[in-house]
UniProtKB/TrEMBL annotation, chains A, B:
Similarity comment: Belongs to the isocitrate and isopropylmalate dehydrogenases family. LeuB type 1 subfamily.
Record-given protein name: 3-isopropylmalate dehydrogenase
UniProt xrefs under InterPro entries: IsoCit/isopropylmalate_DH_CS, IsoPropMal-DH-like_dom, Isopropylmalate_DH
HAMAP family named in the record: LeuB_type1
Reported function: Catalyzes the oxidation of 3-carboxy-2-hydroxy-4-methylpentanoate (3-isopropylmalate) to 3-carboxy-4-methyl-2-oxopentanoate. The product decarboxylates to 4-methyl-2 oxopentanoate.
Reactions performed catalytically: (2R,3S)-3-isopropylmalate + NAD(+) = 4-methyl-2-oxopentanoate + CO2 + NADH
Sites marked Important for catalysis: Y135, K190
Subunit structure: Homodimer.
One family name in Pfam for this protein: Iso_dh
Length: 355, 355
């Protein structure tokens, strides 16, 4: 089995190094091969997703990804910017199912913006469709407005779209995930305004007929953004499109106050997957050795579970992370009075020791 | 001067009655005329926005709006559903600038999900473009997928679009509003993915050249959804498109914990405006006499300020609302230990008395 290791930019290299250290310590049989991606790849090869990196990713069983992006690339044309690498990997590998757990660790309740009673014990799973919607819909571009109040004026446009099979496959993923949890799916749409999401809702209802043991609730995206703040624990599995999922999964992560702890997985139909922390490349703290590697280490655990069929090893990592938290070790982002502040490498070492 | 009074559905009639009572008590010279809208209009006339209601709204200087919607209309075809009334009013009257203040009243800090220190003193203004974007963009509908992985499968689609003059006019509104506040505008986009919002960002930068005294910050919508949770007070004026504004303005309202207090205004180029509470029609508590009328009463104050040129009267209402809060009067939604629970009518009476 082969893992493509793509550290990327900013803190990416530092946090991925710790996850690799943890994987190495497990002494399992897999090969790891690294490649440049994002801004780092642009600097070296003139493209954020070079052919060689894409080839490596396609051939691997799983991809361990750090983060991409840095302000210094803001001026590049869009196709050359670091983010295009992650969009390109998603699309080329067909990674349509994005799992974004929002979990509030007992020891970190205090880090949340929310009152402890609202957030303690939070464990929700946002499932975001990742290869469709307005992210990839054609046509898009600039033109003269073809009609309307400002006909003839310069305008820009994009196309939101979902086909039935795309909605069906993500619906199955959500209902099946809910079966292993609390058997409740909230499908988030904007059916009161958008054709795409009326179709989404209709299709969810159809697929739901095959899962009578799972409860299906429908919620408008604006209401979902509110209910996440008001009563996040009322959710179990949330399923939604690419654009709404981008917004809601980030909102949900931030509710926990410890986004530095949250992993993510993006899977295709063959369970090939890309695993990355929910946070970004944080160029402001890159190279300082203070970034929290736990989200990446927990992403490696998800990788073992979903793509490499190593449930036991996944649980060992998760238990080790629990253990270092219980020991009171904290990177700066989750530090609080009475706990011990450690750096990126120390945190990785502690997880290895706790395995 | 003429006010069209459109109470709508659910708690709409109850809360609008209180706002009308407060307006009457001011003894100013304007005419008020009521009409049905939303589900109530559908029941009576077979359409959520009958011609007569639209005519009244167009001829008025301002519209005082309650709320529309009820689950019992969910099965109707989209064009006949209550929400179409509000979309129709926005589009027909060209109400492109939506003002959604998110204010946390001192006495209501405890009602928020957020820790008091994060929310106390919050006073941000979300300005949402309201007549463009994917809400109204054509073409939209269902068809066979013309290309892609599922070519030929049934799909649904919508068009996101913004023309330059549409972005320019909302940019001016935002910069001018910021001048009267803390001189900071955060423009929320998704320029890293969407053509429409790269154009939005470019145009914001262009218009900003005319407002060198105002600071302009750009933020991706997913990050904005996070920063609102993490540090809401870091914002002053937030400006964004119709779809992102729908989500973020609701998220921001809910952060305060007292959405029953938050008014909104939707204006066109002639300062004709529609004024409504930020909350919905709450059919579950309709007819019980317990809904909070303060958001609607404060919407009437905004109406006096923006459309009827009666700043003094607006301030009288706002001061009266502050007074009833200081007196400890609370409807159920904002009630807490030690305060006096009152119903809708009692709350309206108290505001009249406090004028
Ligand atoms: C970098 C960007 C294109 C990306 C997205 O919008 O999907 C990011 O926000 C994410 O959620 O992974
Ligand atoms: C009812 C609905 C169409 C509307 C919208 O999405 O604009 C509502 O959510 C709002 O924000 O006023």
């Amino acid at each position: 089995m082969k893992i493509a290791v793509l550290p990327g930019d900013g803190i990416g290299t530092e946090i991925v190094a710790e996850a690799v250290k943890v994987l190495d310590a497990l002494d399992l049989k897999f090969e790891m091969e690294s490649a440049l991606v994002g801004g780092a790849a642009y600097d070296a090869h003139g493209h954020p997703l070079p052919e060689s990196t894409l080839k490596l990713a396609k051939e691997a069983d799983a991809i361990l990804f750090g983060a991409v992006g840095d302000w210094k690339y803001d001026k590049l044309d869009r196709p050359l910017r670091p983010e295009q690498a992650i969009l390109g990997l998603r699309k080329n590998l067909g990674l349509f199912a994005n799992f974004r757990p929002a979990i509030c660790y007992e020891q970190l309740v205090g880090a949340s913006s929310l009152k402890p009673e609202l957030i303690a014990g939070l464990d929700i799973l946002i499932i975001r469709e990742l290869t469709g919607d307005i992210y990839f819909g054609q046509p898009r571009g600039r033109r003269e407005a073809p009609d309307g109040e400002f006909k003839g004026a310069p305008e820009a446009f994009d196309t939101m779209r979902y086909s039935k099979p795309e909605i069906e496959r993500i619906a199955h993923v959500a209902f099946q995930a809910a079966r292993k949890r609390n058997k409740k799916v909230t499908s988030v749409d904007k059916a009161n305004v958008l054709e795409t999401f009326q179709f989404w809702k209709d299709t969810m209802i159809e697929v739901h007929a095959q899962y009578p043991d799972v409860e299906l609730q429908h919620m408008y995206v604006d209401n979902a953004a509110m209910q996440l703040v008001k009563a996040p624990k009322a959710f179990d599995v949330v399923v939604t499109g690419n654009m709404f999922g981008d917004i809601l999964s980030d909102e949900a992560s931030m509710l926990t106050g410890s986004i530095g702890m949250l992993p993510s997985a993006s899977l295709n139909a063959k369970n090939q997957g890309l695993y990355e922390p929910s946070h970004g490349s944080a160029p402001d703290i890159a190279g300082k050795g203070i970034a929290n590697p736990l989200a990446t280490i927990l992403s490696a655990a998800m990788m073992l579970r979903f793509s490499l069929n190593q449930e036991e090893a996944a649980q060992r990592i998760e238990a080790a992370v629990q253990k270092v938290l219980a020991q009171g070790l904290r990177t700066g982002d989750i530090w609080s009075e009475g706990t011990t502040k450690v750096g990126t490498v120390q945190m990785g070492d502690a997880v290895v020791k706790a395995l």
